[in-house]
Amino acid sequence: MxxxxxNWIWEGIYYxxxxxxxxxxxxxxxxxxxxxxxxxxxxxxxxxxxSNLRIFxxxxxxxxxxxVYMDGCFDLMHYGHANALRQAxxxxxxxxxxxxxxxxxxxxxxxxxxxxxxxxxxxxGLKWVDEVITEAPYAITExxxxxxxxxYKIDYVIHGDDPCLLPDGTDAYAAAKKAGRYKxxxxxxxxxxxxxxxxxxxSLRDPKNCEDHNGADERSQEENQSKSSxxxxxxxxxxxxxxxxxxxxxxxxxxxxxxxxxxxxxxxGHVEILKKARKLGxxxxxxxxxxxxxxxxxxxxxxxxxxxxxxLSVLACRHVDEVIIxxxxxxxxxxxxxxxxxxxxxxxxAENSLYNEIDPYxxxxxxxxxxxxxxxxxxxxxxVAQRIxxxxxxxxKRNAKKGLSEKRYYEEKKYVSGE
Length: 419
Fold this sequence. Notes:
The protein is an alpha/beta fold.
């Protein structure tokens, strides 16, 4: 039948709206098409389609999950990376992260500090990440952009408001912007991988820069001034901590696992031991030692990252439920009781203390609740720092190259805006 011969349907809707409303709902719930009505082949024009009648609009839109994509090198993972991915996730329902390959990083920026495997462990360990694409290109070409849209069903490409330039000075996200599928987030001030490399090199560049058995610092005044120029500019707020926190308390009968440490230069070894610790209970509580405590036991050139930076990095890990900011070196009975700790764990791979004082785990050991966990990875903060020191010249060139590119970008931007 043609549309004009179906006037009885519209008359029925007009005079018996309740009856037809029930039929429409029933048909929708049964997943049937409009041909259900007597096999008459009714084809409603656009103004009268199911979606425009707005019966199931809300439910239908609820099924459509927005997928956003953000890529990066994520080398020397820090809380700035984590905050960027947190912001990106807030722009959609599912966050897909593109991890740039080692070869692409070498060609565009210089040698990476961490391997692809280590960077993958760090990125996939973040609580906001749903999926990771490895071997992502440094520049998003139209070909890769089409792959994102069709193969990975990406709706928007996300990046920070800081420049990301190719060696020729062009914008790495030009194709995404041209397609109208680009969204921007605010860069986290006060930290960058370049800055962290600078902190490490200023603190550890002198092999004689160490402490004697009494913890006396032998660094000269000039070296102290050099380090101060690379100190963190991060200003912590309670709001930022809340943004990173799970905001959940352990249940009344939860098995609470406690692990402590400096967690400086948060790396893949940290992620893996936290993952292993979390499997021993229902709630993972992490104690993060204060800057003073770390300096006393590791040397005055540590920590590289200060307490609140380290706390955010740990909070961003999907395996962590809560942290104690500035946890004590020695675990006491009162602490165990206060936090209702069921088991205390420590990894086999860890930085050595400068002192042979009382074992900080004596109390939980005597209580029979201490467990030594075999560390899945043989990596420490010191070993990561040593990689950078071993490639000092290459990283200096890398930092200088990035700084020059950003300077040119901002100068051109200022010229175009007429400032």
